[in-house]
Amino acid sequence: EAGVVQSPRYKIIEKKQPVAFWCNPISGHNTLYWYLQNLGQGPELLIRYENEEAVDDSQLPKDRFSAERLKGVDSTLKIQPAELGDSAVYLCASRGARGGELFFGEGSRLTVL
Amino acid sequence: AQTVTQSQPEMSVQEAETVTLSCTYDTSESDYYLFWYKQPPSRQMILVIRQEAYKQQNATENRFSVNFQKAAKSFSLKISDSQLGDAAMYFCAYRRGHDKIIFGKGTRLHILP
Judged by CB atoms within 8 Å, which residues 2-31 of B form the interface with A? Predict the structure, then answer.
């Protein structure tokens, strides 16, 4: 069974540029999460989807961050414009309808110069 | 609001020895889940062990076991017979129902050969 797939693994951009991250969850997993992980810190939730509905986006900085999961499968997280403080790892995770385990992707490491 | 606290930023243990990682949490709920996740360097986060709050018996997975003290809101992870491959960041996490998972800041575990 394929795991959670994220791309790109690494991205370096200059500040004020846009960037997008893509996530394909495990097949059949209805719940999808985007987490932000700063260096040496635990992941912090940005947004959670149940199918195509964003059910918790209270921590998403909506002035510059946006996310979508149009068909309830893969998802895109966008930052526009990027700021220096956005440098971090962006983790995607998914969870099936049963059980509580989250499966994580390898993450997308963003460096903003 | 729920919080998860890991008071040990770093720990070291001799190979083949036993180590215990501490975690405390704060919640007013009675039904929830607790997790320990492992994040090796530059690799994806994986679930180590899970505990349902309604279960009195401590969870065990091979060399990994927990000491769940519900009244004290404590959830420590014991790793027996430590191996070099156990070196990683370990995150304690809390989830209520289908809500988001809240992570602690992590403990970096070093295994000394």
Answer: 4
